[in-house]
Design a protein that fits this description.
By secondary structure, the chain is an alpha+beta fold. It is about 25% helix and about 15% strand. Helix 2 crosses helix 5. About 35% of the residues are buried. The protein binds 2-oxoglutaric acid. 2-oxoglutaric acid binds next to strand 8.
Length: about 280
């Protein structure tokens, strides 16, 4: 374990997430890592915009980011992050989404939402996913810093006692997370938040990795998006994050076998190997 990970106060970060709904890792990326992120992202940006108001008509999103360069592979399994998530998710938790988000000048604020609303289970409930948002550019209130409603991770469903349902009331509770470039924050998928409006002349670049329970369906289907040759070259932890592991005793199996077997270059799917001859 490196010194940075050894001195990371996991308890304090878990407590912050539990109590106010988010925690900040100030030195998530070193200046060198930040430069590598910028370099790796450069070729993917300036080509397209979101297709709807949620993705953002003036926002660029680069999906499947964890497979787009070694720096993103490393950041998806950053040791302090893994230590933190190990405390709040079950073993063999999964990467559910991985994307860069570049909010351009003139973008409006997103709708207020949670990241694990896909899992239609009554609230209040434990989070089924956790979100990390890392600032590549410093986040300011003016350039579209993520805005969160502290404490909202504990709220019930719409209409439940104690939960404001009036939009203006909720908007008044939004807190912009102004963090320096290189910092990141982590929050449960039950926390209400939104990407802010960018009222500056410069884009606001960030990326997000989201992680979910090992028994939950992932937002991105990484089995289909990342070629097996590429997965084979990844670290064991990242392969596990991408789903090449099981949730015991056999969720995630491949025709009765461990999914890692499917990465063997000689693997022939049993439904092909065992197909009766015509
Ligand atoms: O970019 C941000 O600050 C937040 C984006 C977000 O919450 C989302 O796209 O789900």
């Amino acid at each position: 374990m490196d010194a940075q990970t050894a001195s990371f106060d996991v308890d304090a970060h878990v407590a912050q997430m539990r109590d106010r709904g988010y925690t900040i890792i100030e030195d998530f990326m070193s200046p060198a890592t930040l430069a590598a992120v910028r370099g790796a992202l450069a070729s993917y940006l300036r080509s397209h915009h979101g297709r709807n108001d949620f993705e953002g008509f003036k926002t660029e999103r680069v999906y499947t980011l964890a497979a787009r360069g070694k720096v993103f592979e490393d950041l998806a399994e950053e040791p302090r992050l893994m230590a933190l998530l190990d405390r709040v998710l079950q073993p063999n938790f999964l990467l559910t989404a991985s994307q860069a988000i570049n909010i351009e000048p003139g973008e409006t604020a997103q709708s207020i939402h949670t990241d694990d609303s896909f899992y239609r289970q009554p609230r209040p409930r434990p989070a089924i996913s956790y979100t990390v948002i890392a600032a590549v550019d410093a986040f300011t209130q003016a350039n579209g810093a993520t805005e969160v409603i502290p404490g909202s991770h504990l709220w019930g469903d719409h209409g439940a006692p104690g939960r404001p349902n009036d939009l203006a009331e909720m908007e008044a509770m939004l807190t912009p997370l102004e963090i320096p470039a290189g910092a990141a924050f982590v929050f449960p998928g039950t926390l209400l938040h939104r990407g802010g409006a960018n009222r500056t002349e410069e884009p606001r670049l960030a990326f997000t990795n989201q992680y979910c329970e090992p028994w939950a369906r992932t937002q991105e289907n990484f089995y289909l998006s990342i070629p097996k040759d590429q997965v084979r070259a990844m670290s064991p932890r990242l392969r596990s994050l991408l789903g090449y592991e099981i949730w015991p005793s056999f969720m995630g199996m491949v025709t009765g076998s461990h999914p890692a077997k499917a990465l063997d270059p000689d693997f022939v799917p049993p439904i092909v190997a065992q197909r009766p001859a015509d």
